[in-house]
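Extended Data, panel c. Modelled sequence:
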Amino acid sequence: MGKKAIVIGSGFGGLSAAARLAIKGYDVTLFEKRDKLGGRAYTYEIDGFKFDGGPTVITAPWLLDEIWELAGKRREDYFELIPLDPYYKIFDHNGRAFSYNGDHEYILNQIDAWNPADKDGYTRFMATTKDIFETGMALIDKPFLHATDMVSVVPDLVRLQSYRSVYGYVGKYIDNEFLRRCFSFHPLLIGGNPLDAPSLYVLIHYLEREWGIHYAKGGTGAIVAGFGRLLDELGVKVQLNTEIQEILVDGKRVTGVRLPDGTVYEADAVVSNADVAWTYLNLIPKQYRHKNSDRWVKSKKYSMSLFVIYFGTKKRYNTGTSLAHHNIILSERYKGLLREIFAEEDLPADFSLYLHMPTMTDPSMAPDGCETFYVLSPVPNLGANVDWTTQAKPYRDAIMQFLEENYLPDLQENIVVEHYIDPLHFRDTLNSHLGSAFSVEPTLLQSAWFRPHNRSEDFENLYFVGAGTHPGAGLPGVLSSAKIVDGLLN
């Protein structure tokens, strides 16, 4: 038998790492705390309604295709990706909408309705994003293990004005305030504040424009199921309902893991797809961690959290509605709201929302004549002064009342199933430090070499994949982190 590898956690980073290492010839065992695969991409099934627990915006499909190709298989035989049009519909606080897709002329027509003078600026903006994309994507699957790795890319980062925020960079080209918001919200999809995230992240807009936004038929859970099938075919041993108690250490190496019942599994390499901070703080005794001390881990700035309500209705809303598959509903406040969410103080009274309507594209996500939704609101992480045991219900009520009054008439009398998650879920169920939804926040000084590394400095055979390590959160990021680890392991 080949070398043994243990993968902790089955988010997309862990699933990808397990597949890649099995293809390489490793004897892989994957441990998952919950009752099914998926991590953040867990699926809930309630009375015939299917809800994707986490990511719903599928970009960079070639990163998925690549894994199946390495296994000598076709991704299309495992799950189907459906391109969406429009990508998003973005609403201002008055309910007026802006849509965009991959068609430049279509976007210019949309801009024309808001501020004709910004059409030229948008065209110039898009011309710059190609260079940013090509520079950024060249870094996305490279390990940043040494300071010298960072020094070599600094000239490019300066040339591309990465010291500017995404919002500030967009503002160089776009004058209309609402349109600035439409082209700068993307860092929120990976846990970043558009006012702070470096302008390198405008590459997300270019990525969407060039390769589209996709929906997996049957929901994102269909991708997880496809991975499950692939892992089974590759001989990966999957242990569900199995939490790791400790990563075992011998000097500068880790030797395996211990379960709560005392069972030990030995390995030549351990790959953690659990939250990086949680892994260090909870799975490895502090006396073994010299670089990644408690103090160092806690000194990082962690992303905001999320409040997400999954609900199903006994009527269809998708006919005659102004809504699309992906909807972003912006509050009247933008900068002030973002600053409050990321300041980790109190729960803001207002909110901006992402409303997901998968039944627009795929009626199988709900029983006949019914509709499936989830609505997500970015909220402060658990560093803030918010008691979710008492504030979750009023916050839920405010969001649902807002949707009923503005977008979904008679909503609450038509809801037949409902479930919500809050920052406590991210902390207690998903083992995320401070209940952050995206781990380490993507700021300039927490990107590339400045992020927790894909290979631990303390242990030569402990590796990290997922949102908290390089390159960061989002499906392209976590899939790329597995590619990096694949390259580091021989």
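The first strand starts at residue 4 and ends at 8. This feature is highlighted in the accompanying rendering.
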